[in-house]
Amino acid sequence: MKKEWIGTILALLTAVVSGVSIPVNKIFVVDMDPTVFTAVRAVIIGVVFLLISLATGSIRKERMKMNWKYMVLIAVIGGSLAFLLFFGGLQMTTAGRGAFLHKTLPLYAAVFAFVFLKEKIPRKQIYAMMLMLAGTVVLFSATINPSDLWMNPQIGDVLIIGATIMWALENVIAKKAMINGDTNFIVSFSRMFFGGMILFGVVLLTGKAGILFSLTSQQTANILISTGFLFAYVLFWYSAIRYINVSKAAILLLVAPVISVVLGNLWLSEPVPMLQILGSGLILIGAYFVVGLKSRLVSGV
């Protein structure tokens, strides 16, 4: 039970970091190509997790033992392709639509976790997820028209959905790797470092490498601040799914928009429409029920 609470708290901390990152990114805006931006952050964080893995003995230096099949899949699917699809999609749709579509991740994570990890998803968890997703729809209705996504979809929306599905699949692969003996530090290192190197390859092929040599000191500082938040997100998230079911952890990420709404009002004096208050309430009620659920497998393990 102790592991359950540790994993649950870590998942909630991940949601807090995610929620804080949105208003912070509005303050520390980094005006540069998103692929270059993501590649730089990923490699920096990957190196940090490599050092942590070596320091903790997660990597056996003499043999470099890890499940390379899983590590490659994690890097390619979640660390590179998903980012390329996501940012490619954002260029063809709005940030609001992209943010909302990304919040459908718990649905895909639940399906993949049930099929590939045999995670047990009780009715209470399903009902809570539906309530939280409904709250997310209501919350985002204050800024976008969610129904328009289905009635008038754009190519960018499809790309973002594809990226979200890939991230859900990558999370399940990461959990499988940890079940088979890899630590969360190894998984984090593989996802960020190898994924970042793939993204750097794309940067070179598209002739964007010169952007790195034209950064101002302010841009560099902002990148480091953003990297710090992403490091915290990755650290908390992969630590969380080490202890609890992926399906449960993914649902708790839906608390992030509530954090963003509150901090946006406190820090940036952004208005809080009644729809956002109502949506936030539904999300928090659903999260309350999810927190108390215990992670189990279909077999009852």
What descriptive keywords fit this protein?
301 residues, mainly alpha, 13 helices, 0% strand, globular
Task: Give a structural overview.
The chain is mainly alpha-helical and 301 residues long. The chain has one domain. The chain contains 13 helices and no strands. α4 runs parallel beside α8, α5 runs antiparallel to α11 and α9 runs antiparallel to α10. The longest helix has 27 residues. The chain is globular and about 45 Å long. The mean pLDDT is 92.
Fraction in beta strands: under 5%
Major pleated sheet: none
Question: What count of helical segments does DSSP give?
Answer: 13
H/E element order = HHHHHHHHHHHHH
Fraction of residues in H or I helices:
over 70%
Question: Termini distance?
Answer: 13 Å
Poorly predicted sequence stretches spanning 5 or more consecutive residues:
none
Q: Tell me the total number of β-strands.
A: 0
Query: Helix/strand/pairing class, anyone?
Result: mainly alpha
Mean pLDDT: 92
Could you tell me the radius of gyration in angstroms? 19 Å
Number of domains: 1
- The coarse silhouette is globular
In short:
The protein is mainly alpha-helical and 301 residues long. 76% of the residues lie in helices and 0% in strands.
Describe the SSE topology.
Elements: H1 2-27, H2 34-56, H3 68-90, H4 95-102, H5 105-116, H6 123-140, H7 146-151, H8 155-179, H9 184-205, H10 217-243, H11 246-252, H12 256-268, H13 274-291
Helix pairs in contact: 1-10, 1-11, 1-12, 2-3, 2-9, 2-10, 3-8, 3-9, 4-8, 5-8, 5-11, 6-13, 9-10
